[in-house]
Amino acid sequence: MFEAGADTPRKYLERCLEVISNREAEVKAFVCHDFESAQKAADASSERYRSGRVLSALDGMPFGAKDIFKSAEFPTEVGSEFFRGHRDWQDSAHIYALKRSGAILVGKTTLPELGSGYPPLTRNPYDLSRSPGGSSSGSAALVGAGMLPVATGSQGRGSIIRPASFCGNWALKPTFGALHSGGLIWRSPSYSVMGIHSASLDDCWAVARCIADTVGGDPGHPGLYGADQLGPGSKPSRIALLETAGWKGADETYKVKILKFGEKLSANGVELISRNDSRDIEKLEKALSLFPNYRPVIAAWEVKYPALMARDVGSSFITNELLARFGEGEKITLEDYRTALISLEDLKAKFQATAKSVDGYLTLSAPSLPPLGMGTGDSIFGDPASALGAPAWNLPLLEDRGLPMGLQLLGQQHSDFKLGQYAKWMQTISD
Amino acid sequence: MFEAGADTPRKYLERCLEVISNREAEVKAFVCHDFESAQKAADASSERYRSGRVLSALDGMPFGAKDIFKSAEFPTEVGSEFFRGHRDWQDSAHIYALKRSGAILVGKTTLPELGSGYPPLTRNPYDLSRSPGGSSSGSAALVGAGMLPVATGSQGRGSIIRPASFCGNWALKPTFGALHSGGLIWRSPSYSVMGIHSASLDDCWAVARCIADTVGGDPGHPGLYGADQLGPGSKPSRIALLETAGWKGADETYKVKILKFGEKLSANGVELISRNDSRDIEKLEKALSLFPNYRPVIAAWEVKYPALMARDVGSSFITNELLARFGEGEKITLEDYRTALISLEDLKAKFQATAKSVDGYLTLSAPSLPPLGMGTGDSIFGDPASALGAPAWNLPLLEDRGLPMGLQLLGQQHSDFKLGQYAKWMQTISD
Question: How high is the ipTM of this complex?
Answer without folding.
Answer: 0.96
